[in-house]
Amino acid sequence: MKLEPVVLQGRHVRLVPMTLDHVPALWEASDPELWRLTTSQVHAEDDMRRYVQAALDGQARGTALPFVTLDAAGERVIGSTRYGSIEAAHRRVEIGWTWISSPWQRTAVNTEAKYLMLRHAFETLGCIRVELKTDVLNERSRRAILRIGAREEGILRKHAITEAGRIRDTVYFGIVDDEWPSVKARLEAML
User: By the number of CB atoms within 10 A of the CB, which of 8, 95, 111, 140 ranks highest?
Assistant: First the structure.
């Protein structure tokens, strides 16, 4: 399982490899509400640069593969997402660190992005497990993860400390390779 930068193209969204050149457009697409329930705090363009650099550092270590999310129609930067917590020996990745600019929330964008990433993980990379997680307080994210067909697997209490200092409980979800055909069909029907 070797993760290399790749473009994932759909009808609504295009995921492209993240670079530092994306920082200004990512900052422009961001808004403070997006960071309220995340472990990262992005309140200025320099914070976004630090966020992107951390993602790229993870890529250099082989533990992450970050993407910038583009609106396929207009090629406008509307967010980011990534594979993280990569465990090649166990054929496992996490999909996360996902945020979408407010005007594109509750559209096909996030559903298609997850579909493209899941398809790539299971059908190209040969993953046997894909994990997703979110803050226990993030009800919208929890519903969205369940909606795509992931199973809630449990809550890790006091799992992380956010940059703002809040102690976070984290909900874990998973999709395994045996479930992928039905999850794939569900996502294709939704799209």
Answer: 95
b (16+ CB within 10 A) / e for 61-81: eebbbbbbbbbbeeeebbbbb
Cα angle vertex 44, ends 40, 47, to 5°?
40
pLDDT number for residue 33: 85
Question: Which tens digit of pLDDT belongs to each residue from 24-56?
Answer: 999 999 998 888 888 898 999 999 999 999 999
DSSP string for the chain: -------EE-SSEEEEE--GGGHHHHHHH--GGGGTTSSS---SHHHHHHHHHHHHHHHHHTS-EEEEEEETTTTEEEEEEEEEEEEGGGTEEEEEEEEE-GGGTTSHHHHHHHHHHHHIIIIIS--SEEEEEEETT-HHHHHHHHHTTPEEEEEEEEEEE-TTS-EEEEEEEEEETTTHHHHHHHHHHH-
Q: Confidence class of residue 119 from pLDDT cuts 50, 70 and 90?
A: very high
Rounded CA gap, 50 and 155, in Å?
28
- At which residue do the structure tokens 């399982």 appear? 1
Assess contact for 97 and 69: CB atoms under 8 A.
no
Nearest to 133 by CA among 79, 163, 92: 92
